[in-house]
Amino acid sequence: MSDKKWIILGLLIFMVLFLSPFLYNVLIKAGKAAPMAELVLTPKAKAAKECVMPTPYMRTEHMQLLDEWRLKVVRGAQRDFTNAQGKTFEMSLTNTCLDCHSNKAEFCDRCHNYASVRPYCWDCHLDNPQGEMK
Amino acid sequence: MKSSRRRFIKLAGIAALGLGAQPAIKAIAPAAQTGPQVEFSPGPNALTAKQWAMVIDTRRFNKPEDLEPMIEVCHKTHNVPHFSDKRHVIKWIWETHFHNAFPDIPNRFISEAAESRPYLVLCNHCENPPCVRACPTKATFKRENDGIVMMDMHRCIGCRFCMAACPYGSRSFNFVDPRTGLNEKEMNPKYPTRMMGVVEKCNFCAERLAVGQKPACVEVSNGAIAFGDLSDPNSEVRHLLRENFTIRRKQNLGTEPCVYYIV
Amino acid sequence: MLELAIKGSKSYWIWIVALLAVIGAGFLLYLNQLTVGLGITGMSRDVSWGFYIANFTYLVGVAAGGVMVVLPYYLHDYKAYGRITIMGEFLAIAALIMCMLLIVVDMGQPMRVANVFLYPTFNSVLLYDATVLNGYLFINLIVGWNVLQAERNGVHYAHWLKPIIYISIPFAVSIHTVTAYLYCGLPGRGFWLTAILAPRFLSSAFAAGPALLVLLCLFVRKVTHFDPGKEQIQSLGKTVAYAICINVFFFLCEIFVAFYSKIPEHMDHIKYLFAGLHGHGIMVPWMWASMSLMVIGIILTVNPATRKNETTLAVGCAVIIAGTWIDKALGMIAGGFVPNPLHEVNEYVPTLKEICITLGIYAMGALVLTILYKMVVGVKEEVRA
Question: Which value does ipTM take for this structure?
Answer without folding.
Answer: 0.90
